[in-house]
């Protein structure tokens, strides 16, 4: 019940912030997607169908820039289903060709809550290429009093202002009462926005492993997205594509594990 109340409050806060930000000049997007996760536990295989919705918005915050993103994802597998909620807030400052700042966020379901905080930065390494990096610390009493230390990087290349491809890689060390776990993930994504419209289509793939638990997954993703405030490149430069807490701590595999505890 506590986590359900928190999830409701977090989502209400997300929409309140985005509604307030909409009164100023903003850049962002909302989207919906479907993922198919194939999970190998070492003792057998399992599949998860994941239906999700998410949104992000970047806005002026005085002399700084703010951003907030939120998501909800329902994981449906053989063992039942669970819904993960996530909200992340960002505050940063811009410099020539990039930005740097910090974030705080949470991922939660009926049984598990994971808090996260950290720093992030992005820089235009070439006229059409952005390098983004994120490091953070997370904590969850519900996962055997786990401390999580994580890092993630994304390299985004814009074939045009409305056609983006990117590669990503992440690593998380999970220190629990029962020992340490190391998890990593790599992925590739693409997004294409149709000419003279705010609508785009997305597709992606991610592979993740938890070495010490003999657990790995392959996740295939497709989706649609509505952008406001400019092109995909504008969204990137405004800081409306920064990484969320649920992506940082284990990516798609990490969210699947949290959902499994929520079942």
Strand content: over 45%
Number of helices: 4
Overall 3D shape: globular
Total discrete domains: 1
User: Could you please say which CATH topology applies here?
Assistant: Porin
What's the order of the H and E elements? Answer: HEEEEEEEEEEEEHHH
What's the arrangement of strands in the largest beta sheet?
1-2-3-4-5-6-7-8-9-10-11-12
Question: What is the CA–CA distance across the termini?
Answer: 14 Å
Could you say what the CATH architecture is?
Beta Barrel
Computed Rg:
18 Å
Q: Roughly what percent helix?
A: 10-25%
Mean pLDDT: 89
Number of strands: 12
Any idea what the CATH superfamily is called?
monomeric porin ompg
User: What kind of sheet is the major sheet?
Assistant: 12 strands, antiparallel, barrel
Structural classification = alpha+beta
CATH top level assignment? Mainly Beta
Would you identify the regions where 5 or more consecutive residues have pLDDT less than 50? Answer: 1-23
Keywords: Signal
Signal peptide: 1-24
Pfam family, one: OMP_b-brl
Protein name: Outer membrane protein beta-barrel domain-containing protein
């Amino acid at each position: 019940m506590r986590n359900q109340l928190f999830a409701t409050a977090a989502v209400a806060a997300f929409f309140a912030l985005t509604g307030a930000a909409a009164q100023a000049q903003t850049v962002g997007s909302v989207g919906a997607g479907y993922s198919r996760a194939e999970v190998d536990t070492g003792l057998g295989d399992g599949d998860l169908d994941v239906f999700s919705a998410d949104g992000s918005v970047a806005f002026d915050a005085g002399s700084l820039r703010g951003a907030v993103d939120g998501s909800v994802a329902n994981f449906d597998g053989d063992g039942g289903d669970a819904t993960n909620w996530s909200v992340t807030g960002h505050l940063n400052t811009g410099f020539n060709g990039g930005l740097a700042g910090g974030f705080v966020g949470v991922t939660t379901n009926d049984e598990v809550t994971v808090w996260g905080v950290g720093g992030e930065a992005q820089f235009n390494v070439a006229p059409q290429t952005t390098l983004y990096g994120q490091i953070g610390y997370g904590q969850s009493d519900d996962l055997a009093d786990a401390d999580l230390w994580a890092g993630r990087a994304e390299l985004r290349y814009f074939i045009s202002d409305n056609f983006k491809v990117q590669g990503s890689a992440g690593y998380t060390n999970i220190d629990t009462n029962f020992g340490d776990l190391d998890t990593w993930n790599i992925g590739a994504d693409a997004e294409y926005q149709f000419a003279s419209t705010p609508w785009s289509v997305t597709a992606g793939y991610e592979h993740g492993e938890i070495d010490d638990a003999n657990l790995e997954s392959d996740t295939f993703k497709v989706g649609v997205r509505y952008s406001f405030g400019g092109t995909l490149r504008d969204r990137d430069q405004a800081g409306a594509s920064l990484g969320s807490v649920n992506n940082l701590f284990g990516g798609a595999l990490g969210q699947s594990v949290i959902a499994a505890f929520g079942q």
